[in-house]
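Reopening closed ticket. The problem is back. First fold of the pair:
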Amino acid sequence: MRPVAVGDLAALVAINDAATPAVPVTPPDEFASLVADSTLALVAERDAVPVGFVLAMVPGLDYASENYRFFSARSDDFLYIDRIVLAPAARGAGLGRELYGRVFDAARARGASEVTCEVNVEPPNPESLAFHAAMGFAEVGRQATKGGAIVVALLAAPV
């Protein structure tokens, strides 16, 4: 694990976009802005090749995400995971848990009381819901986004 570098962006955009519909397709310039706005931006590597990443944000940003805004209206004491994505070949090897461990470490260091995120329920993402439940996340809300095309479970876990 290491901080995201500019040279990683093309590989991370490809990993991100391959995970649709679990995460939105994101143009490279928009992805670069997300990384720049993130309080925590880490890349997971295997043999020096990026295979995943996490982007997390603190409250108080001018970020248009409907899900981030839900958590911002609810609290000012969280670390929000905007997205965490692993390439299919990297799944099941513990990298997701390691990335989440880093997020929880960062939340503790900031004095945040919870880590927040969302998971699609329409279209369904049962693997992610099960993973988050195993990591201690509980549903604190549900909302339709993208004009009703996607419904997400809004999740929080104590730090």
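Second fold of the pair, where the issue appears:
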Amino acid sequence: MFRSLIKKRGFHTCNSLSSDFSHVVIGGGIVGTAIAGELQQQDGNEVLLIDKNEQLGMETTSRNSEVIHAGIYYPPGSLKSKLCILGKNKIYDAWLNGKFQVPLKKCGKWIVAQDEKEAEYLEKLKKISDEVDVPVNFITTKQANEKYPLIRAESAILESPTTGIISAHDYTLFHQSIFENNDGTLGLNTELTNLEYNKGTSNYTLTLQSESGEMQVTSDNVINSAGLYAPEVSNLLLPKERHYQGYFAKGNYFSYSPETSIGKVTDVLIYPCPNPNAASLGTHLTFDLGGQLRFGPDLEWLDIKKANEIDYTPNPKNLSKAYEAIKTYFPDITLNSLHPSYSGVRPKILSREDNISKFADFVIKEEDGFPGFVNLLGIESPGLTASWAIAEYVRDIYHK
């Protein structure tokens, strides 16, 4: 497949005349697709985007809450903070200016506290929000009870009006259309099996396996945006002492069969106050663009070493624990109204133990000794929200 494209197009605009492509992006989730689109728009670039699945966005991108995050949970100055806020603003600006027709809803979110300790944590979130200039405000428990009497908030409620929901599928298609409309080359059902740096020509050789067999392509630059598989891709190239270990935190989601109409429950997302030492934001209440309520994700660390060992079957054993967590803010819920629905897996680069004491920021960097090789590791939440800004960040590494 690629051989005919290489022969047809010639790729004479690459920096290195010996390379088939200027850039190869490995991984076609929302982040990789957005990166490919940004790079392909730059004069002189010839970009190949590969993904091992039959469509783009079939893994982490399609297995999350589809929330546009406001950017209030992360330390100011961190990549997660900066890129989340920038990405959120780009989404809303494009939406308001009619630049794309991606379905979304700026519904807002409540973070609810049930005791004084949780209320103090919300005060800290308010200070972070003020520092990074993200609007939030406290509402009284009386106001909350009057608006959504089925939602329990005993101590405090922090409202985030810029939180929203978006169709991750359509958002991925939006960036895919940018890439393909600018003549990018897309290779689906294509898996990377080896990656080598050629010092003599200062480019990379990628061995690819597709339905038509094995082949090799060369590229001046390589972007590792393989999500759950990113540590394995990186380890193909970097020396052993610089290898990364991936960790996998599964999140189960539960559908809800309401005994009352959805509109009577809430029309804003409801998040519990997160545990400061947890690696997630808690089992929260979200809904899709069709108005269907769902709960999740919970947090289940998987005892596996590689991403191909993941079992995405939602774990029914977690239902009772999720029910107890949900009851803290939605006391009228019944166990029988919850049903295992789907799951996703967060690509972690810190272990369960390290996640308790350390903040895990995005890793986005050009690796020393491997010019043009950019690693993206630990791109978990808020990766969907931040994806457009991440793409511009990577673009600027190459086009300063």
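Update: turned out to be a display glitch only; the data is intact. DSSP finds eleven helices and 20 strands in the chain. Confidence is low (pLDDT under 50) at residues 3-16. Please close again.
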